[in-house]
C-alpha cells in the first residue's frame, strides 16, 4: 500500500510479520464478538502496538489504509472475497477483485463499512456466495439415463465433466481464490470459476472457524440454500472436483496436461496436494465412481450452479462430424450412433467390393467367351 498504517514504534522486525499479527488479532476478536466493527478492530490494533494512532482519525490516509487492511485481512482469512492491495481511485472505496466472481460488487464504501460489524461486509460482496434458486433443467436437447434419480434432480458426470464442458461447450476454467465463487458460471464469456485451494475447505468444516461464524447470520430465509451449513458448503466444494475431473478419463487428462499448472499459478505457485487427489491425478479417486449425482441430496447448496452449467451443456447442438465425435453426454446414444455409422460404412465398402467383383467377373466372362468364339472359328476354317 502506498501509505503505511503500521506503527513506527512496532517491536516487530518486518511489516509482513506485523500484518500476520494483525490478521491473528482480527480472527481472535471476531471469534469472541461477531459484532466488532472495522474501527473497533483498528483501535484494538493501536492498543496492541500494531497500528499508528492516526489510523483512528478519518479521513487521514493512514485511517483509509488501516480500514482497507482490516477488510482485506478478513477476506483473506475467510477466503470469501479478494481485494486489491490499496484503495480504489475514490479514496472512500476499497476495490474488490471482480475477476474472482461473476456476480460481485466491485467496490466497498469504507466509511459505511467501518461503522458496521465486519461480518456485515459480506452484504456488499455476498453476490459471490451461492443462494437458493429455482434452478431447473432444460430437457430440450437430450434425454439422459438417470441412474435412479429423477430427471430434474440428476446431475450427470457426462454433462458436467471438464472434457465435455471444454470440447462441446467451449467453457474455459478460471481458477480463483474466492471460495464463494466456486462453480460460478459466466455464460456470456464461457468461464467457469473453480476454487484452487480445497485444503482450506478441508480445514474449515468445523463449526468454530471464522468462516462458519461469518456465514452464520449471512443468509435470510428467502435466499438460504436448503440444508445450508458451513460443513455442507465445504463438503460440496470438495465433492464437486470428483464430478468435474476424477470421474472422467478425458477430464483427468485435461487436469494433468493443462489445469494443474493453471491452478498452481492462480494459487501463487502453490500446488495443493489435496487438489491432485480430488481431481484424480493418480487415478486413485476414480474407484466406485458414479454416473450421476443427486442435486437435492449431494449438492443442496451448489445445485443451482451445477444445474445452470448442465442446462447450458444440454442446449448445445453439435453441427459438425468432429463435434458429434466429442459429444459424449449420452454414452449409449454415442455408441449406438457410431456403431450404426461404422456398420453402414462397412456395408457400403462391402457393396462396392461386391460391385467391383461382379464387374471383374463379367469382364472375365466376356473375355473368355470371345476367346472361345475365336477358337471355334479357327477350327471351322
Task: Report on the architecture of this protein.
The structure is a single chain. The chain has 15 helices and eight strands. With 381 residues, the protein is mainly alpha-helical. It has a three-stranded antiparallel beta sheet with strand order 1-2-3. Strands 5-7-6 form a three-stranded mixed beta sheet. A hairpin with a 4-residue loop joins strand 6 and strand 7 (191-195). Helix 1 (15-32) packs across helix 3 (61-78) and helix 2 (38-47) crosses helix 3. The chain is elongated and about 125 Å long. The N and C termini lie far apart (117 Å). Mean pLDDT is 77; it is low at 134-143.
Brief summary of the model shown:
It contains 15 helices and 8 strands. It has 381 residues and is mainly α.
In helices, the fraction of residues equals 40-55%
Outline type:
elongated
**What's the main sheet like?**
3 strands, antiparallel
Total strand segments:
8
Cα-based radius of gyration, to the nearest Å: 31 Å
Percent of residues in β-strands: 5-15%
Q: What's the rounded overall pLDDT mean?
A: 77
Coarse structural class: mainly alpha
Strand order of the largest sheet: 1-2-3
What's the end-to-end separation, in Å? 117 Å
What is the H-and-E element order? Answer: HHHEEEHHEHHEEEHHHHHEHHH
Number of helices: 15
Low-pLDDT sequence parts: 134-143
Pick out its properties.
381 residues, mainly alpha, 3-stranded antiparallel beta sheet, 3-stranded mixed beta sheet, 15 helices, 8 strands, 49% helix
Amino acid at each position: 500500500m502506498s501509505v503505511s498504517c503500521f506503527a513506527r514504534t512496532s517491536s516487530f522486525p518486518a511489516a509482513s510479520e506485523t500484518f500476520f499479527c494483525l490478521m491473528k488479532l482480527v480472527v481472535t476478536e471476531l471469534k469472541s464478538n461477531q459484532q466488532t466493527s472495522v474501527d473497533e478492530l483498528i483501535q484494538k490494533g493501536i492498543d496492541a502496538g500494531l497500528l499508528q494512532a492516526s489510523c483512528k482519525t478519518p479521513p487521514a490516509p493512514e485511517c483509509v489504509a488501516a480500514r482497507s487492511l482490516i477488510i482485506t485481512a478478513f477476506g483473506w482469512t475467510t477466503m470469501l472475497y479478494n481485494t486489491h492491495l490499496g484503495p480504489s481511485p475514490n479514496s472512500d472505496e476499497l476495490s474488490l477483485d471482480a475477476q474472482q466472481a461473476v456476480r460481485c460488487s466491485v467496490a466497498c464504501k469504507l466509511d459505511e463499512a467501518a461503522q458496521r460489524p465486519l461480518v456485515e461486509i459480506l452484504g456488499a460482496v455476498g453476490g459471490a456466495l451461492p443462494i437458493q434458486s429455482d434452478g431447473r433443467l432444460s430437457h430440450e436437447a437430450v434425454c439422459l439415463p438417470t441412474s435412479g434419480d429423477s430427471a430434474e434432480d440428476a446431475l450427470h458426470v457426462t454433462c458436467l465433466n471438464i472434457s465435455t464442458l471444454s470440447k462441446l461447450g467451449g467453457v474455459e476454467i478460471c481458477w480463483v481464490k474466492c471460495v464463494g465463487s466456486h462453480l460460478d458460471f459466466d455464460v456470456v464469456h464461457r468461464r467457469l470459476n473453480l476454487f484452487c485451494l480445497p485444503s482450506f475447505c478441508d480445514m474449515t468444516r468445523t463449526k468454530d472457524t471464522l468462516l462458519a461464524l461469518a456465514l452464520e447470520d449471512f443468509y435470510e430465509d428467502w435466499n438460504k440454500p436448503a440444508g445450508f451449513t458451513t460443513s455442507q458448503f465445504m463438503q460440496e466444494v470438495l465433492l464437486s472436483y470428483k464430478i468435474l475431473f476424477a470421474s472422467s478419463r478425458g477430464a483427468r487428462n485435461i487436469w494433468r496436461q493443462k489445469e494443474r499448472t493453471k491452478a498452481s499459478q492462480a494459487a501463487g505457485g502453490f500446488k495443493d496436494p489435496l487438489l491432485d487427489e480430488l481431481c484424480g491425478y493418480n487415478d486413485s479417486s476414480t474407484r466406485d465412481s458414479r454416473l450421476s449425482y443427486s442435486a437435492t441430496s449431494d449438492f443442496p447448496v451448489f445445485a443451482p450452479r451445477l444445474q445452470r452449467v448442465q442446462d447450458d451443456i444440454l442446449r448445445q447442438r453439435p453441427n459438425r462430424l468432429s463435434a458429434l465425435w466429442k459429444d459424449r453426454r449420452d454414452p449409449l446414444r454415442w455408441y449406438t450412433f457410431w456403431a450404426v455409422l461404422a456398420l453402414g460404412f462397412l456395408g457400403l465398402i462391402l457393396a462396392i467390393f461386391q460391385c467391383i467383383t461382379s464387374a471383374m467377373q463379367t469382364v472375365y466372362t466376356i473375355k473368355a467367351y470371345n476367346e472361345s468364339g475365336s477358337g471355334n472359328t479357327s477350327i471351322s476354317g
